[in-house]
UniProtKB/TrEMBL annotation:
<dbReference type="InterPro" id="IPR015421">
    <property type="entry name" value="PyrdxlP-dep_Trfase_major"/>
</dbReference>
<dbReference type="InterPro" id="IPR015424">
    <property type="entry name" value="PyrdxlP-dep_Trfase"/>
</dbReference>
<feature type="domain" description="Aminotransferase class I/classII large">
    <location>
        <begin position="31"/>
        <end position="385"/>
    </location>
</feature>
<keyword id="KW-0032">Aminotransferase</keyword>
<keyword id="KW-0808">Transferase</keyword>
<dbReference type="GO" id="GO:0008483">
    <property type="term" value="F:transaminase activity"/>
</dbReference>
<dbReference type="InterPro" id="IPR004839">
    <property type="entry name" value="Aminotransferase_I/II_large"/>
</dbReference>
<protein>
    <recommendedName>
        <fullName>Aminotransferase</fullName>
        <ecNumber>2.6.1.-</ecNumber>
    </recommendedName>
</protein>
<dbReference type="Pfam" id="PF00155">
    <property type="entry name" value="Aminotran_1_2"/>
</dbReference>
<dbReference type="InterPro" id="IPR015422">
    <property type="entry name" value="PyrdxlP-dep_Trfase_small"/>
</dbReference>
<comment type="similarity">
    <text>Belongs to the class-I pyridoxal-phosphate-dependent aminotransferase family.</text>
</comment>
<keyword id="KW-0663">Pyridoxal phosphate</keyword>
<dbReference type="InterPro" id="IPR050596">
    <property type="entry name" value="AspAT/PAT-like"/>
</dbReference>
<dbReference type="InterPro" id="IPR004838">
    <property type="entry name" value="NHTrfase_class1_PyrdxlP-BS"/>
</dbReference>
Length: 393
């Protein structure tokens, strides 16, 4: 059967592909260290598990409103007030099947064929594919490593055409871990307001920041910017809840209503039990995200030094998320490879360490290393990478 054009040009997620390859090698009995994971390596906290069990026992196993249960929307609104000084009504929030589906639904409701979305590069792998699926076109703006992988207001303005509909800002970023500060966001916001461009602010790593620099939501900078922004967030990374699939979007009533209509015909609703679990995550006094954050901060310090110490590998120190995004081009070249992709494959085969090549993130000289692993595993991984680099020169 002939498949639809829209899926023929779709690239499979490179992060999932490397994780699958690493799993396969593991199943064959190899001692593989997978640095490809995009999820915390902790289990979901007990109080959240208990809330889900209770929801099941209480019979919360039926369809819910398409945009999510009211209690959860209220808890999300309270989170916005407490963390971001933002006030949203219930009809400005939609709960979705993970933040990924919030983004998917958003692109579907805002884009017409040929509309452009500016995507700063390096980018998270799903943005361009989701834009393509909505018949839009991703316009990449290359952020330099020198500027810590952040685009400047000028670079943004130069990429704007009469077809530009939106820009994606992901801070802290996957894959680079970099963050925009308030001043930078203000200037980017000015450009967006001037050209009437929607800002899609993906804040999924908001809780995982390892410097004193606070997270700023661009929507909180003015009323106009709030009107012009859709925030994407969720509990996957903050509460080790990737498998539960609960994310959300907050923005204008018009956009949220359209997203909710679309959800009513696609997912019907995010899983009822998972919504009660997320409600517990946002309702407790117990801030388990702090514990998670401390563990990641300690790992970052150790792993960053070990990786940066490898000849031919250089890395800007990330400020958030749980990835290093070093430039490995020199090491790959010295090892006799013409591309980082080939180098990554050889490293997996020879030393059984799985990294994600940067090409999938729009940055072919880099590789992404997740530090959602124990310190012992990270130390062993760095040792193996170093051995590979040094032995093959
Ligand atoms: N946005 C970014 C930048 C991500 O890295 C991810 C997950 O990897 C998501 C969104 C999607 O998260 P969720 O698990 O809530 O779908």
């Amino acid at each position: 059967m002939e498949l639809a054009h829209r899926v023929k040009t779709l690239s499979p997620s490179s992060t999932l592909a490397i994780t699958a390859k690493a799993k396969e090698l593991k199943q064959q009995g190899h001692d593989v260290i997978g640095l490809g994971a995009g999820e915390p390596d902790f289990n979901t906290p007990d109080y959240i598990l208990e809330a889900a069990k209770k929801a099941m026992d209480d019979g919360m196993t039926k369809y819910t409103p398409a945009g999510g249960i009211v209690e959860l929307k209220k808890a999300i609104a309270a989170k916005f007030t407490d963390d971001n000084e933002l006030s949203y009504a219930n009809d400005q929030i939609i709960v979705t099947t993970g933040a990924k589906h919030a983004l998917y639904t958003l692109f579907q409701v805002i884009l017409n064929k040929g509309d452009e979305v500016i995507v700063p590069s390096p980018y998270w792998v799903s943005y361009p594919e989701q834009i393509k699926l909505a018949e839009g076109s991703a316009v990449f703006v290359q952020a330099s490593e020198k500027n810590h992988f952040k685009i400047t207001p000028n670079e943004l303005e130069e990429a704007i055409t009469d077809k530009t509909k939106a820009v994606v800002i992901n801070s802290p970023s996957n894959p680079t871990g970099m963050m925009y500060n308030k001043d930078e966001l203000e200037k980017i916001g000015e450009v967006c307001l001037k050209h009437n461009i929607l800002i899609i602010s993906d804040e999924i790593y908001e809780k995982l920041i390892y410097t004193e620099k606070p997270h700023t939501s661009i929507a909180s900078l003015s009323n106009e910017l709030k009107e012009q922004t859709v925030i994407i967030n969720g509990v996957s990374k903050s509460h080790a809840m990737t498998g539960w699939r609960i994310g959300y979007a907050a923005g204008s009533k018009e956009i949220i209503k359209a997203m909710t209509n679309l959800a009513s015909h696609s997912t019907s609703n995010p899983t009822s039990i998972a919504q009660y679990a997320a409600l517990a995550a946002y309702s407790t006094e117990e801030d388990t995200t702090l514990e998670l954050k401390q563990v990641f901060a300690d790992r970052l310090d150790v792993f960053y030094d070990l990786i940066n110490d490898i000849p031919g590998i250089s890395c800007v120190k990330p400020e958030g998320a749980f990835y290093l995004f070093p430039n490995v081009k020199e090491a790959a070249t010295k090892n006799g490879f013409t591309s980082v992709d080939e180098w990554v494959t050889a490293l997996l085969e020879e030393e059984k360490v799985a990294l994600v090549p940067g090409s999938g993130f729009g940055s072919p000289d880099n590789a992404r290393l997740s530090y959602a692993l124990s310190l012992e595993e990270l130390t062993e991984a760095a040792k193996r990478i170093k051995r590979f680099v040094v032995n093959n020169q």
